[in-house]
Amino acid sequence: MSRRLDRRTLAVTAVLLAGASVSAGVPIVAGAGPVALAWVLAGAVLLVGGGVLGDYVRWRHTEFRCTPERLEVEFRFVVHTRKSLPRERIRTVDLTANPLHRAFGVATLTIGTGQREKITLSPLARADAEALRADLLHRVTTATAADGPLATLDPRWIRYAPVSFVAPALGLAAFGALFKVADWFGAGGDLLRRLLGLFGELPLVVSIPLLLVLALGLGVVGAAGLFVEMWWNYRLDREPGGTLRVRRGLFTTRSTTLEERRVRGVELVEPLGARLAGAARVDVVATGMKDPDDDKTEAKTLLPAAPRAVAREVAAKVLGERVEDVGLVPHPRAARGRRLRWALLAAGVPVLVLLGLGVWLTDVLLVLGAALAVVALPVAGVLALDAYRSLGHGRAGAHLVTRSGTLRRATVALTRDGVIGWTVKQSVFQRHRGLATFTATTAAGAGAYSIRDAAADEGLEFAAAAVPGLLAPFTEVSTLVETSAA
Predict the structure, then answer these.
(1) Phi and psi of 329, rounded to 5°?
(2) Residue 472: is its pLDDT beyond 80?
(3) Of 131, 391, 124, 412, which is closest to residue 283 (Cα–Cα)?
(4) Where are the membrane-spanning stretches (predicted)?
């Protein structure tokens, strides 16, 4: 039987467009004076009226139906369009409700296959959206003993938000927005003088760093606020029917449901700031989660930044076994040398450019180059050593584990039966030092996960043992060649 979207979409559209008209009209009226008020009001009426009329046409001529085999959506007006998804190909069902939706009791339901195929039903009554979500993914009705909550939000986790790379970006964005608004009223220059005046008669070389510290402080507050908005009321559940469900959000609520039979592993992500604070994030590695048009990190996140022990516990519950205690195989010292050379090269090139320009143009650039060398070269060396210490790989039961990275250290636990191929790469420099990079190919997550700069012989044995039979033809050829040479 065909069904329609919720009629309250017309009220949602009217309120949304009215708010957009006010936000756009205020700067115009403020800049042009009362003369522009009549034109702004007329434009607002046309915008709201046209938008509601267009939404009425969409609501009146859109129908959807859910059969045991397919989910179908049809739009019949001047043109006839039809979208259809086979139910066995549905991988994720996301339910989102922004503050306006929540006020009217509706929600948006997005059904995806993990590729470009996607159907969005917006809006539905909240109860209808929940019922359809359960119907689309809960294909098995037998509950298991493991059903129930796997993790809930601890408000103390908010302390990890300011140590992310988001904080400085938000601080600079806040200053940019402040200057943009001031520029609307022709007060951009006056605002800068007022901000610098906060520090009295201090010279610019002191005032500007203090202004950056102020921006960073605003970024810290913004990062904490963003964390609260995104992850308040967070809850991770294993539901009857073999699905994982993540619910979160303060003003805009979000719910993501994923079939467990699509899970091929997890990724323990530790950005540098979070790692120094003892925190980590858990992302899922699953088939059908890679959408070329929507690469949002939070869509695949099972656990936000939380204490590392909590992250490991959640990863173990999702995987069904603990993998963090596996002894990872360290990589050869030649891998450390490669990281040191690349890091020092990356830091040294800008230094050499500044020094060269300084000799040619001005001594100021010589001073800047020297200062950059004093700071950048030691930092590059420390990060390179940390990147080497982070390297490792191993096996834990049904999973293979690989770890790498420094600014973003990632430990991936991948189901061994989910690996469909291996790619072995050796550059000229790697071959000279007996190193190779082994990449496990899978249909889940990013599609490929690498063991970087491992010992070539040991890495080949590890890859062959991790997925028996996959590399057998190549190892047999290698053995025959060695025997012939002997």
Answers:
(1) -75, 120
(2) no
(3) 412
(4) 35-57, 160-182, 202-228, 342-360, 366-385
Whether the CB-CB separation of 454 and 466 falls below 8 Å is answered with no
Peptide bond before residue 378 is cis, with ω within 30 degrees of 0: no
Highest mean pLDDT among 94-103, 110-119, 282-291: 94-103
- Burial string for 69-78 (b: 16+ CB within 10 Å, else e) reads eebbbebeee
Q: Is the pLDDT of residue 455 over 70?
A: yes
Span 53-87, pLDDT tens digits = 999 999 999 999 998 889 999 999 888 899 999 88
Residue-wise pLDDT tens digits, 203-228: 766 777 777 788 888 888 888 999 99
Q: Reduced to 3 states, what is the DSSP secondary structure of residue 303?
A: strand
CB atoms within 10 A of CB 328: 17
Statement: the pTM of the whole predicted model exceeds 0.85: no
Q: What residue spans of 305-362 are helical by DSSP H?
A: 308-319, 333-360
Q: φ and ψ at 264, to 5 degrees?
A: -115, 5
Q: Are 267 and 285 in contact (CB under 8 A)?
A: yes
φ and ψ of 437, to 5 deg: -110, 125
**Domain ranges across the chain:** 9-137, 158-231, 333-389
E-only strand ranges, 233-278: 235-239, 243-248, 253-259, 263-271
Contact 439, 421 (CB under 8 A): no
Out of 1.20.120, 2.30.29, 3.40.1130, 2.60.40, select the CATH number for domain 9-137.
2.30.29
Query: Which pLDDT score is estimated for 433?
Result: 92
